[in-house]
Amino acid sequence: MTPSIETSGAAIVFNGQAGRDYTPAMEAILSDATFQAARSAITSWPGYAPTPLVFMPKLAHALGVGSIAYKDESGRFGLGSFKALGGAYAVMRLLMKRIADETGQTPEMADLFEGRFSEIADTLTVTCATDGNHGRSVAWGAKLFGCRCVIFIHKDVSEGRKAAIEAFGARVVRSAGNYDDSVREAQETATREGWFVVSDTSYPGYRDVPANVMQGYEMMAFEALAQMDDLPTHLILQTGVGGMAAAVAAHVWRRTAPHRPKVILADPEAAACWYETIAAGHPVTVGGDLDTLMAGLACGEVSELAYDILKTGADVVVRLPDRAAIDAMKVLAEGACGDKPVVAGESAVAGIAALAALMEDTEAAARLELGPRSRVLVFGTEGDTDPAVYARLAGRTGDEVRAAATAWEKRQ
Ligand SMILES: Cc1ncc(COP(=O)(O)O)c(C=O)c1O
């Protein structure tokens, strides 16, 4: 059965600057050493477990590729998205630095969990702007390590997502404008109040914290490679500010240097800053209200650090209409082709939708060598992070899909 993912309206742009060298400038952002530090911390956190890699052989066959591996982040630390890896790790690093500055000692992980420096942790307020998932991670990290937390959300963030952040004890402030306006408001308030911004995006003069965030994200790529028998030939990575895509691309690139798999970015039509940036050959800001259903990808400005990696690390960008994402959510929820049903949220499915769009365009697919021998790795970056939105779009609830997945497993 051919999955019905409506991709008309999708657009594809190839990157004229794509390259093969993982340069010293990239090493300075993401290296094996910085990843090992993140890995040893994150794997020691309570509740750590690798997330599953789900193979979708029937969907792969229907779309015309050799294999599709879907890294299902819906269960990550019980937060519902891969973002748990990044913001919380950056909070931990900030706290460790403050403890080292104040005591002259480098704390151990156990010191943090046993509250040995709780008085210092209580003096640290972390803040960020978020479309939901990053703020949830920062709030969770603040709670885990005993810091204070204030999170800024923009006008389109759903009440469900707001409540999920508040559940970790953070104060949530709703700003009037779009995502990029909330980023500025968080920064200005932090400067005034002496708080620390834990942003997942970087800009001139602000790179260390978002680099830590990206080092945490690499965990997802590390696990995925360990779960595959052969290296992927293609990565398809959805982009908000691009931090996730850059972290995954960089990790896989270091493991495969001087070669690397083809890197395909997937950007929503209403917030296509990566599409415009790669088309122009320099960072381009996209304005407007960035109103896409793919809430996690609703960003108008690329992250500086991500651009440093993806300006040569990306081969192509696919710009997707929301319709394609909704269809892909349904395909995965139904297990439409006979594969295991998966709870894939609005921002999780862009990789599958982009693959469908590329396979419709025979010229683009041929240029990318996408075909029956391709091993495609996609990242299902969230589950039903907003259960009501998910049920409305996927046509069934997350619980129904999880029950269907269990039944599917029993039949195997
Ligand atoms: C579920 C989900 N997927 C993907 C992304 C994109 O990550 P980035 O902004 O680092 O590109 C986000 C960002 O919030 C997200 O929440």
From TrEMBL:
EC numbers on record: 4.3.1.15
Single Gene Ontology MF annotation: diaminopropionate ammonia-lyase activity
Keyword Lyase: yes
Domain Tryptophan synthase beta chain-like PALP: 46-378
Superkingdom per UniProt: Bacteria
InterPro entries referenced in this protein's UniProt entry, alphabetically: DiNH2opropionate_NH3_lyase (IPR010081), TrpB-like_PALP (IPR001926), TrpB-like_PALP_sf (IPR036052)
Record keyword Lyase present: yes
Cofactor(s) required, per the database record: pyridoxal 5'-phosphate
Gene3D superfamilies named among the record's database cross-references: 3.40.50.1100
Keywords: Lyase, Pyridoxal phosphate
Enzyme category, top tier: lyase
Protein name: Diaminopropionate ammonia-lyase
Organism for this UniProt entry: Hartmannibacter diazotrophicus
UniProt gene name: ygeX
